[in-house]
Amino acid sequence: MTDRERIYADITAERESQDARWGNQTHSMPVWNAILAEECGEVAQAGLTVTFHGDTAEHLAHLREELIQVAAVAVHIIEKIDSGDWVRGV
Fold it and tell me: What's the Cα-to-Cα distance from 62 to each of 14, 39, 53, rounded to whole Å?
């Protein structure tokens, strides 16, 4: 498995985990944006931890985990747009 294949497999696993945890999510774009922004905030926090507390394996693993979550949420949004299964408007 290449690095990219492993990354995509991790994103797919996270998408499946999101579905198992939250069920079918159908939101308006403002809500999706808020969900994605919240995940991006977690990436920012993890990135600051790496920057100011060292790039230890633990800190980098956490940053990677948060990035996978951002990618999975973005994929979820794309899936909803492609399927038409999202709420238009606010």
Answer: 14, 13, 13
Is 88 part of a structural domain of the chain? no
Please give the Cα distance from 40 to 34 (Å, whole number).
10
What is the residue range of 75's domain?
3-83
For residue 43, what pLDDT is reported?
Answer: 98
Is residue 1 very low, low, confident or very high in pLDDT (cuts 50, 70, 90)?
confident
- Residue 84's pLDDT is what? 86
Q: Is residue 62 part of a domain?
A: yes
pLDDT tens readout for residues 28-54: 999 999 999 999 999 999 999 999 999
- HSE (side-chain half, CA atoms, 13 Å) at 89: 0
Structural domain includes residue 90:
no
